[in-house]
Model the fold of this input.
Amino acid sequence: MKFPYKKYFKIHDYSLDYNQSYRGAFDKIDLNLLENIAKIIKNNYSNQNSKIIVGGNGGSTALANHFETLI
Done:
């Protein structure tokens, strides 16, 4: 999915399409799978023999740098 996918002349139209696009992407998230991923990360974080590597570029680098504080 790529947004914006057309030229907008009114902020109202852009906002409606953006929200619809965002909501559609969010609705596709499998929350059960996400919960399982979170459990795996938390279990491995507690294990001193495990290593979790988090990376990113741009803004996601800041998220990766602060990953430990989120757990």
